[in-house]
């Protein structure tokens, strides 16, 4: 054997090896345990289907096409058979099981025990003759069909499980979670099936239609007119009550006609003014409005609902002001100063005028208990409404105190005339000299300022709390599909609509939206909408919003 020549040299002749650079020495390689998770993706073909029936039929037709291509002499034609649909179902179940439980299937094929961390360990799974993973369980001797004793096993996250739950929910005629799950267990055993069944039922559009859960939003800030002291009825609300039956004449053979009660309410003091209107026409409303302003002073800001008579009244007043400016220059300035700022609450949103609805309710309370089934003449109805008006304006603005030393409760009458309208009359002041009258006027002015101070310190603090709608809710988005609630129709006939635009309030919260239905475009509050559990469609074209 011949080796290196240096091996035969004397020991002292051996040369020392060159120094090794420490930077060239490789660092110590330590084993580090890491977890590598590869996200599982469902079959892209499977994800294109949202119906189990359609999936199985398309798959069965594909199998038939392959069969007919291989065996043209033995072609399959006509309707799909039960065997073909079952073969399609087994095919997709096998694909799903190999995707979710590949390790368990491999262990069972090798007749090895399942891993200790396997979710299938409590189910005692086994492979049938076709290689499908089935539940072993403990019902081997039960008098049940084989498919119910040993159902197929699927994972919750697989899209096929979602299709099976949807199919069972439809087969149960949109039953609840228990009924849907009982039908599902006759076919397959899905891990964590309860959560999946509840999620499918919650997102079922047909079930959501009958649950009819309308959208809500946190209560907004009170308008400026309700939180600042001003002359009574400078900012007012308007609403109609009725109809009521009014007699044209007294005695026998009288004719009865329909009449209405026109209610004006001060937004600051909650004082009420009532007028009788012969009908709901614009002319009748304008006459009632003129009587109101003649007695209570000019109204700068008027709030009402979207009644057609109120819309017409607004247009007619604007036309009158415009005509005065064009043809009557002398009175143009005075009519401009007497113009009324008219605003309307959103259509179908009576809670936007809750103060008006509360006033109408109070008027009806006295109307039903005093008049009952009787029919009054126009004069009698006007007198009765004046008395009702006095009663309502004598109500306390806040709860009464049990302390006898407290002051008299503040009422709207204190802000109108300095005392409740139902009160003991004071002595005559005709015999008092002018100086005493001046002092009396100063006293009245002081009392008025005192009442408004009490209004600010006692009544205003009762408006702080949120009586309902206390939490801020998630916003509706443009493109959301909703149901337009209609109290006059059953939920099955409520119109489908898609949100096209949002109208945020001063606080930035959305309470009114614009909708597009199959036939029209509407503006409605969110309390009339029932959101459907479907994915929103961003950037919706107005022409395709209802499709």
From TrEMBL:
Record-linked SUPFAM superfamilies: Ribonuclease H-like
- Give the record's GO biological process terms: DNA integration
- From the UniProt record, list the coiled-coil ranges: none
- Protein source organism: Lasius niger (Black garden ant)
Q: Which domain of life is it from?
A: Eukaryota
The record's InterPro entries line, in alphabetical order, gives: DUF5641, Integrase_cat-core, Integrase_H2C2, RNaseH-like_sf, RNaseH_sf
What GO annotations for molecular function exist for this entry?
nucleic acid binding
**How is this protein named in the record?**
Integrase catalytic domain-containing protein
**Any idea where the Integrase catalytic domain is?**
228-420
> May I ask which residue range the UniProt record assigns to the signal sequence?
none
């Amino acid at each position: 054997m011949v080796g290196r020549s240096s091996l035969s040299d004397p020991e002292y002749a051996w040369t020392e090896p060159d120094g090794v650079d420490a930077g060239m020495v490789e660092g110590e390689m330590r084993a580090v345990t890491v977890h590598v998770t590869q996200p599982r993706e469902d079959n892209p073909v499977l994800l294109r289907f949202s119906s189990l029936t359609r999936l199985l039929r398309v798959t069965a037709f594909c199998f038939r096409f392959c069969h007919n291509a291989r065996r043209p002499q033995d072609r399959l034609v006509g309707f799909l058979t039960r065997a073909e649909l079952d073969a399609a179902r087994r095919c997709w179940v096998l694909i799903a099981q190999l995707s979710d439980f590949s390790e368990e299937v491999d262990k069972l094929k090798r007749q090895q025990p399942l891993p200790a961390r396997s979710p299938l360990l409590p189910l005692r799974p086994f492979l049938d003759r076709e290689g499908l993973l089935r539940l072993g369980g403990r019902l081997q001797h039960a008098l049940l069909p084989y498919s119910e004793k040993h159902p197929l096993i699927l994972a919750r996250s697989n899209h096929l499980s979602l299709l099976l739950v949807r199919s069972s929910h439809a087969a149960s005629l949109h039953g609840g979670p228990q009924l849907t799950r009982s039908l599902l267990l006759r076919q397959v055993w899905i891990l964590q099936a309860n959560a999946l069944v509840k999620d499918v039922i919650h997102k079922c559009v047909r079930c959501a239609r009958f649950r009819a859960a309308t959208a809500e939003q946190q209560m907004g800030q009170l308008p400026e007119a309700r939180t600042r002291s001003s002359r009574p009825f400078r900012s007012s609300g308007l609403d109609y009550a009725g109809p009521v039956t009014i007699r044209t004449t007294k005695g026998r053979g009288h004719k009865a006609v329909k009449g209405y009660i026109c209610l004006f309410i001060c937004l600051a003091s909650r004082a009420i003014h009532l007028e009788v209107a012969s009908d709901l026409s614009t002319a009748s409303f304008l006459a009632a409005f003129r009587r109101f302003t003649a007695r209570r002073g000019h109204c700068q800001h008027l709030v009402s609902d979207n009644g057609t008579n109120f819309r017409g009244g607004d247009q007619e007043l604007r036309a009158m002001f415009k005509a005065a400016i064009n043809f009557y220059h002398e009175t143009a300035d005075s009519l401009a100063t007497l113009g009324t700022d008219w605003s309307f609450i959103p259509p179908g949103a009576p809670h936007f005028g809750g103060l008006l609805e509360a006033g109408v309710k109070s008027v009806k309370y006295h109307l039903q208990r005093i008049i009952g089934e009787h029919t009054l003449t126009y004069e009698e109805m006007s007198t009765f409404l004046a008395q009702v008006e006095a009663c309502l304006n004598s109500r306390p603005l806040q709860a009464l105190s049990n302390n006898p030393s407290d002051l008299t409760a503040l009422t709207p009458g204190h802000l109108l005339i300095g005392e409740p309208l139902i009160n003991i009359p004071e002595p005559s002041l005709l015999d008092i000299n002018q100086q005493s009258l001046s002092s009396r006027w100063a006293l009245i002015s002081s009392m008025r300022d005192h009442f408004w101070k009490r209004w600010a310190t006692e009544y205003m603090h009762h408006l702080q709390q949120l009586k309902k709608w206390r939490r801020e809710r998630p916003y509706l988005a443009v493109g959301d599909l909703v149901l337009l609630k209609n109290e006059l129709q059953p939920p099955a006939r409520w119109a489908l609509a898609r949100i096209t635009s949002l109208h945020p309030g001063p606080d930035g919260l959305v309470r009114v939206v614009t909708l597009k239905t199959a036939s029209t475009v509407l503006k409605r509050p969110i309390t009339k909408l029932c959101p459907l559990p479907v994915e929103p469609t961003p950037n919706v074209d107005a022409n395709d919003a209802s499709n």
